[in-house]
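User: structure tokens for this one?
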Amino acid sequence: MTTKEKIDRVHIFSQYFESGSGIQFAKNQALAGTLQHSALRSLCWRLFLKIIPEGTDASTWKGLIKQQRISYNQLKEEYLINPYEETDESENLLVNNPLSQVEDSPWQTYFQNKELQNEILQDIVRTYPEKEFFQEEKVRNMMLNILFIVAKRNPTTGYRQGMHELLAPIIYLLHKESVPVGELQDHVAYLASSEEYIEHDAFIIFDTLMVHMDQWFVRTSSTMRGSRSTLNDGNSLDNTSSSPIVQKCKKVQDIMLKKIDPILHSFLTDMGIEPQIYALRWIRLLFGREFHLDDVLTIWDAIFAFGDELKLVEYICLAMVLYLRDQLLEMDNSGCLRRLLNYPPVEDVTIFITSAIHLADPTGNAVKTLNTSNSSVKAKPKTKPQPVSANISELFSPNEDTTSQVVTSSNPMERLTEKLKQSQTTRVHMANRLERIIYVLHQGILEDKAIDPETLIVTVAELKQVKDILNGLLDAEPLNS
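Assistant:
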């Protein structure tokens, strides 16, 4: 590491946390998709997830991190039983021998632990097989220790398949940011990224993340009676109406999508597309299988920074479905499933972050609140993204704050330019609406059957509204807002 890099770490810390805005600067960077350029990303995650309580004086962070690492060492001593080690009971052969039936025998505990560890290891060896980093024995041992201790501390949930895929990005990030022991300085910007404590820090972040994620892995009574579930099978044991993860999936498609795009919702329903078939994996793995690892980190930046119990996850799911709108409407059942289960490559995943934020807060009040604390963070999405789906672009133009559309310039040419821009926005928006209307009518003709009355009423009402907007009788507000 060069001297410049060392100076940059302290400088970045000062810029992020000593500018008088608390952690707001870091949150803005995360929501803009630019936190990936920071050397203190994992420290920001600890603040977003409240591992370091918000409002805590930065001078106390170093001591807090040290204490958390000590606590992890204590957990390792408690849960990682080694019957070969000398203890006070070592001389008692009734207890300390491999054939002992005594309940608290270290050998009994050891054999029980080994069974769980072997189950976890089956998944660990399959983690990112294309990345050499995850094939290293040291990394696999870190993952095994962390997943095992978390499972033992939470016996109700235990270990579930997929948890290793939530841990892997955390260890990967900490490794990328790590500072060799010989290059550490007595500053939290360095000590927080010590190479010596990657496992400790990964446990702390993962354990806290699972507090929020546990509900998506919780075992229902039917699950506990069955065998090991998978993340790819739509008919897995998690596929019950009482499962919280299934309820979340249904909320995304049957409530949120229905409100934003009733046409696409009706189409997916008619195609028999159950939301848990594709969205269960998206939610449970926080999109870990849908995008490249570095893109996953960018999405996690925003999810953690947005806060509110990882609320942004469901809006990212919604944005991802809307992004595929045009493709899905041209496909049959199997085509839709293949597309949703094998998400296409995306050049810039910040498009989903931006779309999700607008979906979560169409008025833009939350984003404005974030941006007012530090205007310099608007680096990445100053411009509106240009996704493939016309429906996502619709999210940005019609719902903008009306005050931004008022022409206030005294220059006639500027006023004319503003009016032309507004006219262009309205034209594109109306074209998207007409496309939906045409699709509904076209499907009715092709299927040679009467259109559902409720759908027909909505379609006619939307067509009338398009006419009124084009005639200047209404503002360009979406029907389903």
